[in-house]
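TASK: fixed-backbone design
INPUT:
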């Protein structure tokens, strides 16, 4: 499968000088996108710790992708520093390519692992799992092709050495195959993301749907970058062999770092939604919609607002009194006194209900008076006339959703 490459060195034995501006652009793009990708990874860790979520394989693959991306960024830094020395720059670029490909593969696996648990039909899930395997196998197999395309290896960046390298059309064919696999995987991930939005359209929160749409757009953007990179590969010739290719490296860097950013879109979306629940629960169990009317209770540190949809079951056969009693048994902390409505047996009786200060909210349905213990031995009426079928939400300040 190997042929001796021809037309590898100019007749005068000198290597053409490379444009210095290209090196500066490569350095700027690499540092900027790497910093943004690192920031999204830090946000992901912050969200997981704040919501006390377990670390999953998707989190591990994102961390691996960021570590590999940092290694490739160091090689690119060496390349740009030596940009006026094409031989040294090309050597650094040669060793940066495998790290860039490994980082992109790990980030792509993280995105797929995030989507797999959300897919309902098994067929979509199986295809996505197969895609993860195929992408990992193809990209990992392509790395030796990069490293051992010339024997000895140093002849790749050293002009004038007797070498045995693969012919240009052979290298292009391998790069096209790897690019087509990457392109298909990106398009399929964009499609699968929209499938998830469609499956949970009735229950998912609007902000979460927007996050999935951003993820789909990010995958399509990366697919465009892959296509541009494949087109650029078709333009390279043997005369370009001993020159570092800034445009090709810039496209590879963008693909890797955009994939890392895309893998962190959903955790960052969950952070801004301030929900605190697992992703699958946010998709399947919507929060009740609230009306605009809300009253601040400074003495308690709680917001009080109405909600037209109760998260408690209305058809469970429990009376209003027994619902309050069950709340009292399940929780402890800040006391609230609830007065039963006149239509209920034992009208006028006040029930002592306690909720934990960390509890996100408490719902009360159909009470005539709600009185708050201010802590000084007196009570204060917060809301009157909570009509049956209407829910009162008490939620801590700063946790209002």
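OUTPUT:
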């Amino acid at each position: 499968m190997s042929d001796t490459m021809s037309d590898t060195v100019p007749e005068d034995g000198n290597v053409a000088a490379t444009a210095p501006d290209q090196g500066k652009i490569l350095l700027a793009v690499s540092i900027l996108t790497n910093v943004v990708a690192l920031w999204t990874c830090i946000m992901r860790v912050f969200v997981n710790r704040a919501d006390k979520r377990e670390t999953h394989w998707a989190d591990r693959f994102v961390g691996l992708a960021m570590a590999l991306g940092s290694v490739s960024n160091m090689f690119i830094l060496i390349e740009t520093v030596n940009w006026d020395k094409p031989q040294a720059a090309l050597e650094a670029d040669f060793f940066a390519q495998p790290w860039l490909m490994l980082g992109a593969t790990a980030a792509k696996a993280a995105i797929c692992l995030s989507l797999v648990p959300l897919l309902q039909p098994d067929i979509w899930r199986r295809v996505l799992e197969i895609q993860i395997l195929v992408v990992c196998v193809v990209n990992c197999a392509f790395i030796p092709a990069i490293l051992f395309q010339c024997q000895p290896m140093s002849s790749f960046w050293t002009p004038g050495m007797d070498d045995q390298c693969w012919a240009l059309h052979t290298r292009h064919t391998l790069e096209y195959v790897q690019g087509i696999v990457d392109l298909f995987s990106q398009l399929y991930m964009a499609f699968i993301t929209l499938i998830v939005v469609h499956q949970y359209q009735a229950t998912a929160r609007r902000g979460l749907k927007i996050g999935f749409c951003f993820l789909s757009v990010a995958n399509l953007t990366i697919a465009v970058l892959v296509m541009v990179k494949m087109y650029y590969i078709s333009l390279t010739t043997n005369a370009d062999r001993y020159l570092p290719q800034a445009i090709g490296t810039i496209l590879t860097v963008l693909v890797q770092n955009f994939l890392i950013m895309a893998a962190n879109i959903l955790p960052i979306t969950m952070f801004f939604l301030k929900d605190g629940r697992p992703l699958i629960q946010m998709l399947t169990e919507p929060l009740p919609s609230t009306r605009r009317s809300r009253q601040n209770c400074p003495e308690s540190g709680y917001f009080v607002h109405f909600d037209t949809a109760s998260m408690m079951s209305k058809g469970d056969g429990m009376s209003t009194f027994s619902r309050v009693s069950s709340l009292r048994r399940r929780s402890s902390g800040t006391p609230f006194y609830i007065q039963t409505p006149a239509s209920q047996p034992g009208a006028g009786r006040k029930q002592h209900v306690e909720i934990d200060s960390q509890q996100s909210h408490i719902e009360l349905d159909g009470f005539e008076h709600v009185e708050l213990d201010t802590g000084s031995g007196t009570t204060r009426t917060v809301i009157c006339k909570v009509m049956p079928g209407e829910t009162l939400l008490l939620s801590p300040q700063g946790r209002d959703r």
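COMMENT: The CA atoms of residues 289 and 307 lie 6 Å apart.
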